[in-house]
Amino acid sequence: MDKSKGSTWITIICIIIGIMIALQMKSIGNLGGLVTTQRADEMLIEINEMEKENEKLIQKVNELENSISVFENQAADNNEVVEKMLKDANMAKAQAGYTDLVGPGVLIALDYTDDDGFDPFTFNSELLLLLVNELNASGAEAISINGERIVNTSEIRLAGNHININGKKNAYPFVFKVIGDSKTLSSALNIRGGIFDLLELNYIEVTLEESDKLTVPRYNGTLNFTHAKPVEK
């Protein structure tokens, strides 16, 4: 056989084998993608079911708390000691964040409107914490961010390309509802060289509105003490 013809046939066979291998790898790749997509759909269904179940549990808790309130009020009608205990308990619940609160205060909105792909909140996520600290130092009695009540165990931290608040994904604009003396809060936040100036230096747009009546929602999480225990007297 002519050597040149033999080389040609070998080349053709190699090309055919290469094409077959490529097609086989492509089929395997497509199969893997299909399995991944199916699993993602299954996980999405599971997450949706868990969210629905969580909503049902929250609704059930609210119903039980309403029933407890009825029993407590009935008991307090005939006992001054019980009435005082209930007032103390309700105050403790309010301070812990487990009740909706209403009162005067300020409404603060933080936003970034430039369409350039930059996110100043993820770039400087600690700015939200600084604002919360300034609000607390200025006499804030209750704070919520995008509907999330801030309590002593609340976390505000960077999680990938978004901000987690109370374990829930949040992104700008961030709306703060703050109950307290509106004049005191406004003056403290607008002080020269203060927190609002710092936010604006980081390209964050700030608006503040004083209000005679704001509602700060309750905290919907749970506070668990595994290691801490009351001191026995």
Automatic annotation (TrEMBL):
Annotated source species: Alkalibaculum bacchi
Protein family (similarity comment): Belongs to the UPF0749 family.
Organism phylogeny: Bacteria, Bacillati, Bacillota, Clostridia, Eubacteriales
Top-level taxon: Bacteria
Keyword list, A-Z: Coiled coil, Membrane, Transmembrane, Transmembrane helix
InterPro entries recorded: DUF881
Name by which UniProt lists this protein: Uncharacterized protein YlxW (UPF0749 family)
Coiled coil: 40-74
Membrane-spanning residues: 6-23
